[in-house]
């Protein structure tokens, strides 16, 4: 019993001792609560300080990031910080120690927790020492998204984007230039190139580089270093940095996007490589086409102004439902029209008009102010104006003058290039060049630069240019700020009366063309006036006698297509006049002044007037004369009339007289022309080939001047006019048209070798164009063949060992009764490589269009028209084109098929991609039952024109294809 009792006593003592110890510890913890609290705060403070130091070191270099070990440690700090915060909150609730039981127990527990947490915090603080470092270089993202705007609903921008994408997919194309006016949307396209998922899959890395107006190599390198997370010593030279960038990109397939390029960039100096790495590419965007060429762009993409529908949609999207009101919508449509299709201007104007809400009075006021923003300040416009001024201020003074001069013509008006260059010359912009031909060439250089900067635009052809209405208003605003370029410009404003004196008194140039002026002031006191444009005032019949009395400085006077009958004597005072345009003044029969007083006159145009050269007599200083044959008068004694213009460099004689009289004087005219020793350009129509041959063989000027430009035709006045150049707008290019002739001779070949345009009409004695010698056609850009009924093919490739018609852009074949093919035999590489337009019409025996090997050369073909060729069964013959690749005809945009009764297919299957096809028109092709399209090809197709009955009879492999194409149909 005693051992048991003893054991119990021992156990009770031990339990009591443990309990006493437990109570003491609890008591001690409760007693130490405040101390443990402050210790925890101290340890946490140290930990947070270390964490902040580490984060500062991590963030000091944006190219670096925390190691994984460091990153996890920072997360642990954040977690323990939250835990300490909870303990602190509990401490504040419980307060200081007390002898009451429950508070004592809680305080003891809290104190113990704080003591243990202090140890954890201290341990974590010790872990914050990273022996292997706390940062590593960030990994480079393949693409850094910019947030590109949606351009899918803007056809011009989306079209430029798709063209660029097409070029990016071609292996041989390394550099692509996107160009267009400021504010046109180039940056939006570049953003979309950067963010596009399909493009991202094509490259290892995409590098976006916004280029400033005056970029230094160092600045460009900084942008690229940040993109690549490169650490380069600040003391490194440009060459060392370029080498480092080159090493980083070595072996990588990269796309470099250079936006807003304002001058040539040396990519070797910036990035250290002379040639692009394998499969790498550069896309640059610039307002200047010339810069794209300077940067060695392989292909150019021009960004056109927004189509009106796209501009309207953009405006409507910004303005919102304010234009739901019919009265405001009408005004809004005029507002959009004023913006000229420039996205930047549409955006700013839309945001300004949005403030007008649904107040039609404010909308109308805003429209009227917008229409006059060239003379007043308009909210939203000034920013755009400053933006557009960048292009203007980059020009030298001569080009500035040429640009401002072009604003004299109505907005979007087509301006004849040759005429504009003559006016520039007359105004003195090119006085530093003596020869007229050289000055015209210099004018083309200036014109090209203005076009390359999108300050002027080419029309569809090459003969005319025009100025965007927004840029024209900018030009008018710029001119108003110059004392030497004060303009009075009111063309096409329906004026019946001449403007008030205060409007024209200070003007240096006046443009009142295309109005209904009937009278002019008795005198125009404008001693500083240099240009006066009154053309196409069709009701203007008389000019007051003293009208020109004070215009001693006048240099350009254009009165063409007015109803004037004479020119007053006061014009003798305009002794500095250099350009006088009277063409199509059909009632003009006399000069009441001595034209010999115009001693500086260089360009004179009297076509379609009743003025006789016998009245004018000798004007030995005139350089450019445009006349009609009728200006020679009905007198047979015309010797010395033309030849007396001894300084003449350019002569154009329009034939508009009867054949009988023409036959009488042609020999004399030919001799007169042949005597002009300084002639550099001649446009003339010879009645027969032998007359043309005689001129070429006997004319001293022709023999002396191998660079003479010509537009020659042989036909009679009542036959087809020599219109081939006008048809395709190849102005100032040599052209030769042979009509009603026969055979081939050496003179024809001599002229053909120099010709850019060639017309054969009703010419016999040959069976193919290649009979004229393919080596004589290397310059040919345009070819028209019509009614040559012995012709069976265009080119016979047998024995040919070089590309044929390598520069030809337009080929038009009409009314060839025996033509069976375009090409026979082998097709040598490079043949027809630049052909853009092919027209085949009324060739009843033609069966084969694209012979074997021909279609592979037509990478540039954009427009194909086939009409009234009764035996055509296939546009692309299967038997001639086995194994045709999917990318055949990659540039074809329009396909027109008219009255082809036997046509059964365009291409037998749907294997072709048709990547550029936008429009197809089909009429009277009843056997054509299938179209070569599926759900994946012809993605740019927008219009299918044809009869609804024809569409209803088409056969489809899949209804989904029909549904896709149905929405594109325009039924007639």
Subunit arrangement of the protein: single chain
Beta-strand residue fraction: 5-15%
Find the count of extended strands (DSSP E, 2+ residues). Answer: 34
The overall pLDDT average reads 84
- Give the distance, in angstroms, between the N- and C-terminal Cα atoms: 125 Å
Largest sheet: 20 strands, parallel
Overall SS class: alpha/beta
Poorly predicted sequence stretches spanning 5 or more consecutive residues: 97-102, 717-725, 727-731
Cα shape = globular
Percentage of helical residues? Answer: 25-40%
Number of helices: 29
Radius of gyration: 41 Å
What's a concise summary of this model?
This protein has 972 residues and is α/β, with parallel strands linked by helices. It contains 29 helices and 34 strands.
Written description of the protein model:
- By secondary structure, the chain is an alpha/beta fold.
- Helix 2 (33-59) runs antiparallel to helix 3 (68-94).
- Mean pLDDT is 84; it is low at 97-102, 717-725 and 727-731.
- The strands form 6 sheets. It has a 20-stranded parallel sheet, with helices on both faces.
- Strand 20 (650-654), helix 23 (659-674) and strand 21 (681-686) form a beta-alpha-beta unit.
- The protein is globular.
- The termini are far apart.
- It has 29 helices and 34 strands.
Secondary structure layout:
Blueprint (H helix, E strand, L loop, with lengths): L1 H30 L1 H27 L4 E3 L1 H27 L6 H27 L7 E3 L17 H14 L6 E5 L6 H10 L1 H6 L2 E6 L6 H12 L9 H12 L4 E6 L7 H5 L9 E6 L2 H6 L4 E4 L5 H12 L6 H13 L4 H12 L5 H11 L10 H13 L3 H9 L9 E2 H10 L9 H17 L4 E2 L5 E3 L2 H12 L6 E3 L11 H4 L4 E3 L19 E3 L22 E3 L7 E2 L11 E3 L8 E2 L11 E3 L7 H4 L7 E5 L21 E5 L4 H16 L6 E6 L2 H10 L1 H5 L4 E6 L9 H5 L6 E5 L6 H9 L2 E5 L20 E5 L6 E4 L13 E5 L6 E4 L12 E5 L21 E5 L26 E5 L20 E5 L19 E4 L1 H5 L6 H8 L2 E3 L1
Parallel strand pairs: 3-6, 3-7, 4-5, 5-6, 11-12, 12-13, 13-14, 14-16, 15-17, 16-18, 18-19, 19-20, 20-21, 21-22, 22-23, 23-24, 24-25, 25-27, 26-28, 27-29, 29-30, 30-31, 31-32, 32-33, 33-34
Antiparallel strand pairs: 1-2, 8-10, 9-10
